[in-house]
Amino acid sequence: MDATRETRIEVELGDRSYPVIVGSGLLAQAGALSRGFAATGGRKVALVTDSHVAPLHADTVRMSLGEAGYEVDSIVVPAGEASKSMDQVTRVCRELHRAGLDRGSFVAALGGGVIGDLAGFCAAIFNRGIPFVQLPTTVVSLVDSSVGGKTGVNLPEGKNLLGAFHQPAGVIGDVATLATLPPRAYREGFAEIIKHGAIRDRSMLGNLGTFRDSLHGIDALILRNVAIKARIVKEDERETNGTRALLNFGHTIGHGIESAAGGALLHGEAISLGIKAALGLSVAKAGLPRADAELVIDLLRAFDLPLSLDARFSADRILEKLARDKKFVDGAIRFVLLRGLGDAFVSSDVTREEIAREVSRLFPG
Ligand code: GLY
After folding, report:
1. Cα of 248 to ligand 1 centre, how many Å?
2. Is the pLDDT confidence value at 4 over 60?
C-alpha cells in the first residue's frame, strides 16, 4: 500500500457529479476533504457508524471533522445486516432531528455497505433529502456500494426492497481501513471485484490472486474498480437502459441465497454462489467457454468463497426469496449472462426452471 498516494475519480452525473478519493490515511483528512465537496459547507454533521467500526475509526473521523469546524453528533448502530431495517431508519432519523440537522447539514456514513445504505437512505428522506458523504471501510463498500447512489434497507420479505437513489456529495475511500478487517470480511469483497472483472475487465482477473494475503497495490485495484463502477453509473444512473443492471451479475440468485441464509452468509459469500450459478447458465445459454467459467470459479475458490451449499440451506426457500426479487418485471426475470469474460448482457430468456436447476446444482450429492 502506498502511504502517500491519493487519487480521485469523478463520477460524472451533471449537477450530481462528485469525486471518489482513494488513498491511505484519508480518514484523518475527512473534515478538510468534506469541506471541498459541494453541499457540505454547513456546520452540523451526523457521523453514522456501527458497533464494530466505531471503536476503530470513529475518533479519527470525529477529530478531523471537528478540526475542519464541524459540530459532530455520533450515531452508532449494531454491526450487521439486521441494521438495514426500517426500525434503524426511524431511530437514526429521530437522532438526526434531535441533533438539529437541517438541509445545510450532512450525514457522514462511516463503515461498510450496511452503513452506507442505511445512512444514505436516512439522508435521502430526512427533511426530504440532505447531503451525505461516504467513508467506506470494507472492500465491498470501497469498490461497489459507496459509489452510485443506491441507498436503502431490507424488508423481511427481501433485500433492498425499500430505497432511493441519492448520490453522495463525495466518497473518501481510505484503504488503510482494510488492514483492520477480519480476514473473512476482507475476502468476501473480492466477489464484487471478480464480478467487475467478469462483466467489464477480463485482464484484471489475471493477477487478483496476489491480493489474497497482501494489501500491496490495493489502492490501484480499488481505483480500477471504482472506475468501472463510475463509468457504468454515468451510462445508466437509474438502471433504466440495461447497463447498470450488468452489475447484478451473480446477484439474482445471490440475493435469494443471502435472504434465505438469514445471516449465515456474508453478502460476498452469497454472491460467490450466485456467480457460480450465473456462470453455469452463461455456459448453457450464452456460449461462455467452460474454461472461462472455470477461471472465475478458481478465483472465487482462491479467496475461500463458498461454491456449494449444505443441508442447512433449502433450495425451495432460496427460490421463494428469489421470486420476490425486484429484478422481476411483470413476473419475468432480467438475468445477467456472459458471452465471454468482459462481455455481459441482460437476458429475458432465462426461465424459472433453469434458475431452479442451477440452484439445485449448488447442493452437491
Ligand atoms: N451494486 C449494484 C449497483 O450499484 O447498481
Report:
1. 7
2. no
Q: What is the CA(288)–ligand 1 centre distance, in A? A: 23
Ligand 1 atom at minimal distance to the Cα of residue 232: 5
- In DSSP notation, 64-100 reads HHHHTT-EEEEEEE-SSGGGSSHHHHHHHHHHHHHTT
- Structural domains in the chain plus CATH codes: 3-181 (3.40.50.1970), 187-217+238-360 (1.20.1090.10)
* Dist. CA 267 → ligand 1 center (Å): 13
Length of the chain: 365
Q: Tell me which residue of 361, 220, 208, 215 sits closest to 278, measured CA to CA.
A: 361
pLDDT in tens, 222-240: 999 999 999 999 999 999 9
For 247, residues 6+ apart whose C-beta sits below 8 A from its C-beta are 144, 195, 199, 229, 232
CB-ligand 1 contact for 247 (6 Å cutoff): yes
pLDDT attached to residue 330 = 64
* Nearest-angstrom CA–CA distance, 26 and 6: 8
Q: Is the CB of 255 under 6 A from ligand 1?
A: no
Strands 343-347 and 335-340, by their bridges, are: antiparallel
Check: pTM over 0.85? Answer yes or no: yes
The number of the ligand 1 atom at minimal distance from the alpha carbon of 245 is: 5
**Rounded distance from Cα 244 to ligand 1 centre (Å):** 7
| Model pLDDT, residue 2 | 45
**Percent of the chain beyond pLDDT 90?**
88
